[in-house]
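Chapter summary example.
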Amino acid sequence: MPWYRRPWCEYTFANGSAIMTHSFYKCRSCHQEFRPPIGGYYFVGEAPIAEPLAPSELLAILTRPAWCKDCNHICLVEDILPVRTFEAAYGAARKGQAVQYPIDTSWCEAPEMAAKVKPYLLWRMSRKLSARALCCGGRNYQFLDVAQPLLMHEGCEHGYIEPLFQIGSYCGPGPGVRSAADIPVHDTEGELRAYLKWYKQEDDTWTIEPASYPPATLDD
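The structure predicted for these 220 residues follows.
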C-alpha cells in the first residue's frame, strides 16, 4: 500500500517513514488526554468482502473528529459533502488542477489527478445514508472541529476538547507487518465489516478478521 492515514494528519508511507501532526485531543478543564481511533477504509471491491484482500479494493474514509454522545469518547465521523462538491473536484482534476478534497492531489502528476478523485465521486454518487460515527455506527455526535459548547465527560463536569499538535518521524515497517494492524474496514454505507490484520508483502494483500457493530440497544 502506498500510504495510509491515521487521525487526523499522520501519514505512513510504503517504506515505513512517517510524518505526524495533530495526534491527540485534550480537555481544557480537567486536562484529560484522548487518543482518537485510527481511520479506516471503505470496501469497494466485489461483494462479499473476503481475503486475500487487495489494496485496490479499499478507499480511505473521509473523516472529521467528533465527540460521540453514546460512547462518551472521541470518535471519527464520516465527512460526506454534497455530490456537487465531488463533481467539481473531479472536473478540476481532469483539467490538471490540484484539489484538497476529497483527496489531496497536489503531490500527483496532472494525468493522475482524475484517477485519484474518480473513486470518491463514484462512491459519493452511490451513497444513500447520512454520515455515521465510526466508533458505533450511530449519529448522536458533536463535531470537534467547529466552535463547540462545553462538553461533559466521565470525571469532568464541563470542558472544551481541543486538538494538540505533535510533529515527529518514524522509520520502520508499515502496519500489519510486525503486529496486527487492526484497521477497520466498512462497507460503502459506513457499516463495519472487518479489520485489516496482517499485510502480506510478497503478494500485496491483507488478511482480515470479520467484524460488525454491536446491535443497538433501546432505552427502557
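To summarize the output: The chain has two helices and 15 strands.
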